[in-house]
Write a structure and sequence with these properties.
This protein is an alpha/beta fold and 573 residues long. The protein is built from six helices and 34 strands. It is 23% helix and 32% strand. It is globular.
């Protein structure tokens, strides 16, 4: 007999199992839904806080911009804090200003700023940044007369070859402002600026004679057209007089070596021998009545303040001149400047930089610490007697070149980081100029708010009459304008018109006395120098490199007399 078992209990067990599984699934779904809801709420809170933080940063940026436009600046005690934790709805914001050049907290003495706005809501934060210039409260009484707002300025012509380059110095802190690069000639005629079709010229404008635009739209249209309006023709004032020649005088040629801490003068040549190393410390004047030559492999390090006076030619071949932090070099050159595969500029913080002509060289303090002047060789600025400054090979120069009495030509793969002003400027194929926008204080001819312009938008007559950057002329100009006048790249300190009229008169009288003391010798020395340079011109050949070298090797001259005058060569700001 078969044993038959009922199946009802088994089915009931399966049903119970299904029921338990269903309950378990429902519990899991319920728990998952609860967790999802919590995550959704957290995500929503995070999105809200993020949006509030972003809005706070944007609003803080607008508030900070309005405060800066109104002239508000943090004091030294504020450590750069413009405002801290101001409430903006459910969020708050703080603004801090950093000096664009030093990255330290900005002060009233900063020229540019990096503004950082921190907006916060809950646990989230958003940051907004901006860069800009700090306009001096007395900007309308400030005048910058050295034309340093121009990357290239020539009294006659500017030529940029098809394979040459013109751009900003990318590592300059003020490059972040992306301001157009200005170039101009004295006549403000764009036809005097010739730029090759394939030249690597980026974001530049050419000075053009035109009234100052009265609206921002008109100014923008001019910039879009590649021009910047300047109402009057420009002049390139003569270089300042060199400082007095100090120290022992030798009638023999001098060879420098080791550490130099005292001033010296040679009535003939001064040289630094091949592979020699010379370090200048303290405030020193070195004067060569004839040539100053730095030979291949040599190195000149300036740790103090060096005034270099060269009666004739300054020749640097395969050598380096480096200015240590806190140091400065101001050279006054009576003859030609010849650089062949040389480096001149601030001490390189990156030893591997070498001679970087790509435009990416480190700023290291910029072009203000090296100033090369051409000294006036002829009272009438006779073109036949004008000096020739040539930078060739793989030379890299980080400096200000101010040469009213010279033509400047760059050749090979040479690069100038800074700016140049001369009679004529030529960037030959392969060469480059990278402008340092830190040289522009926005107090010159391209700044409509500058004290250069009068209430009618014209250049003050006293500025138009300025013929020299010598302290005497600058003090007189400050007196006529009732403000402050700044000379070339801080080669002289900022000259302020004293509220004490008697004190100002004493300063002017002292400067005039210095000038008068050398005036008698000036005409004699000038005549001798002109005759000597005229003789050199008769033997000068083409600009070809080999011809130039052979001409220089054949050149013979008697030890010249050189004018000894007073002047300040300090480059301290």
């Amino acid at each position: 007999m078969n044993d038959i078992r009922p199946t009802t209990r088994a089915r009931r067990g399966v049903a119970l199992l299904f029921a338990l599984v269903t309950v378990a699934l429902a519990s899991v779904v319920a728990l998952s839904y609860a967790k999802t809801r919590d995550v959704t709420l957290i995500a929503a809170d995070a999105l809200r806080e993020a949006a509030e933080a972003r809005n706070a940063a944007k609003s803080g940026l607008a508030i900070a911009s309005a405060m800066l436009d109104a002239g508000a600046l943090p004091s030294a005690a504020d450590q750069g804090v413009l405002f801290a934790d101001i409430p903006l709805g459910n969020a708050h914001a703080a603004a801090t200003l950093f000096d664009l050049e030093t990255s330290l907290p900005a002060t009233a003495y900063s020229r540019g700023f990096n503004l950082v706005i921190a907006g916060a809501s809950g646990s989230l934060q958003s940051t907004a940044t901006a860069v800009g210039r700090i306009r001096a409260a007395d900007a309308a009484t400030l005048v910058d007369v050295d034309l340093s707002e121009f990357a290239l300025f020539a009294t006659e012509s500017i030529d940029i070859a098809p394979d040459a380059a013109l751009a900003r110095w990318s590592d300059s802190p003020f490059a972040a402002l992306r301001e157009p690069i200005a170039i101009a000639t004295a006549a403000l005629n764009p036809a005097h600026v010739r730029i090759g079709r394939d030249a690597d010229a980026i974001d530049f404008v050419i000075g053009q004679a035109a009234p100052i635009p009265t609206t921002s739209l008109a100014a923008d249209e001019a910039l879009a057209d590649g021009h910047i309006a300047i109402p009057d023709t420009l002049l390139l004032p003569a270089s300042p007089l060199p400082p007095e020649r100090l120290g022992a005088t030798s009638d023999e040629s001098i060879t420098l070596d080791g550490v130099v801490q005292s001033s010296t003068r040679s009535t003939t040549d001064i040289r630094i021998a091949p592979r020699a190393s010379v370090t200048v410390r303290g405030s020193v004047t070195i004067a060569a009545d004839a040539d100053f030559r730095i030979e291949p492999g040599a190195r000149l390090i300036v740790e103090g303040s060096l005034a270099l006076l060269v009666g004739d030619d300054f020749i640097i071949e395969g050598a380096d001149i480096e200015i240590a932090p806190g140091g400065s070099l101001v050279a006054y050159i009576g003859g030609d400047l010849e650089m062949e595969s040389a480096f001149v500029g601030p001490l390189r913080t990156d030893a591997s930089e070498g001679r970087d002509a790509t435009g990416l060289a480190a700023w290291d303090g910029g072009a203000e610490r090296v100033i090369l002047y051409s000294m006036q060789t002829d009272a009438n600025r006779d073109d036949e007697l004008a000096s020739r400054w040539t930078i060739r090979g793989s030379s890299v120069v980080k400096a200000t070149l101010y040469a009213p009495n010279a033509s400047i030509r760059m050749e090979g793969t040479s690069a100038l980081y800074g700016r140049a002003a001369a009679q004529r400027i030529e960037l030959a194929s392969g060469s480059a100029l990278f402008y340092d926008p830190a040289l522009d204080d926005r107090q010159g001819f391209t700044a409509t708010e500058s004290g250069i312009y009068n209430g009618r938008g014209r250049v003050h007559s006293a500025v138009r009459a300025l013929t020299s950057l010598d302290p005497t002329a600058l003090i007189q100009l400050a007196g006529e304008l009732g403000g402050r006048v700044q000379s070339v790249a801080r080669g002289h300190p900022l000259l302020e018109l004293s509220s004490d009229a008697a004190h100002t008169a004493e300063r002017i009288a002292a400067e005039r006395q210095v000038a008068a003391a050398v005036e008698g010798e000036s005409s004699i020395v000038q005549s001798e120098r002109n005759a000597r340079r005229a003789g050199k011109e008769n033997g000068r050949e083409d600009d070809d490199e080999e011809d130039k070298r052979s001409t220089r090797s054949r050149r013979g001259r008697a030890p010249p007399r050189v004018l000894s005058v007073g002047g300040n060569h300090s480059s301290d700001r």
